[in-house]
Design goal:
Blueprint: E1 10-14, H1 21-37, E2 44-48, H2 54-61, E3 66-70, H3 87-92, E4 97-100, H4 103-108, H5 113-125, E5 129-134, H6 138-142, H7 146-158, H8 163-166, E6 170-173, H9 187-205, H10 207-212, E7 215-218, H11 226-230, E8 237-240, H12 247-254
Parallel strand pairs: 1-2, 1-8, 2-3, 3-4, 4-5, 5-6, 6-7, 7-8
Helix pairs in contact: 1-2, 1-12, 5-7, 7-9
Bound molecules: phosphoenolpyruvate.
Length: 257
């Protein structure tokens, strides 16, 4: 256990577009059994299933120790946005979290930093905590531009918030070259960027806010490497993709603290 007890440890599972209804029900059921049989100490566990399963997950969460988040939200309050889901709708399901700015949404759905900022605002207005993703692509790291990219994403996506609003934000550092590739950032690479992000927050909002902001690592985090990553002083947990699709793997990561 790390000396730092100011920050909430969080392990969040991003299911992406996986699982049929039956499989989703089974996975949550298995996770509930795992959570009942294991001591998760003070780690907050969040699952982010596809939107169509949010209501079921939210109902099941009432009987267990996990919380539920969405994978995406529309930035507008309501209206003619076919296929989209609003923050008010997520709030009505009593969801606590929503992922914003995932690299897949940035790459495939043209989600810019300006849109991320609007989505963050929409969520906070409806009392939902945004899990805001940032991270560089391989070419940016190879060109030594990763610090600049992260700085831009954090500043433009989040630094319009007041300190009070910012206190509800969780950040996930997800190097794009590590997502779904099996190529994890080393614990040292993760620590370097997490410390850098915390420094940016301290400059903008002061040390107290920076010291209480949870910063998660995401990118091929697995049972075999989670312990080393989570041992780093500025890594407060993980945003897990592939390895959250099996309850025992996800549980092993949760227990890595
Ligand atoms: C993700 O997409 O948020 C992620 C971390 O995926 P994976 O763990 O599969 O790399």
């Amino acid at each position: 256990m790390k000396a730092n007890n100011k920050r909430q440890h969080i392990v969040a599972g991003n299911w992406k577009m996986n699982k049929t209804f039956q499989e989703a029900d089974e996975l949550i059921d298995n996770l509930m059994t795992e959570l009942e049989n294991n001591d998760i100490a003070d780690t907050k566990v969040i699952i982010c299933p596809p939107a169509i399963y949010l209501e079921m997950a939210s109902d099941m969460a009432e009987e267990s120790y996990f919380m539920v988040g969405a994978q995406n939200v529309n930035e507008n309050e309501s209206g003619a946005y076919t296929g989209e889901i609003s923050a008010a709708m997520l709030e009505a399901l009593e969801l606590e979290y929503c992922i914003v700015g995932h690299s897949e949404r940035r790459a495939y759905y043209h989600e810019t930093d300006a849109i991320v900022a609007k989505k963050v605002d929409a969520l906070l207005k409806h009392n939902i905590k945004p899990i805001v993703c940032c991270g560089e692509v391989l070419e940016e790291r190879e060109a030594n531009r990763h610090f600049d990219v992260i700085k831009r994403q954090i500043q433009e996506g989040l630094f319009h918030l007041t300190a009070e609003e910012f206190a509800n934000v969780v950040i996930a550092y997800e190097p794009v070259w590590a997502i779904g590739t099996g190529k994890t950032a080393t614990p040292e690479q993760a620590q370097e960027i997490h410390a850098y992000i915390r420094g940016l927050i301290a400059e903008k909002y002061g040390a107290e806010v920076a010291d209480t902001t949870s910063i998660l690592y995401g990118g091929s985090c697995k049972p075999g490497n989670a312990k080393e990553l989570f041992a780093k002083p500025d890594v407060d947990g993980g945003l897990i993709g592939g390895a959250c699709l099996k309850a025992d793997d996800f549980m092993a990561i949760i227990k890595a603290f």
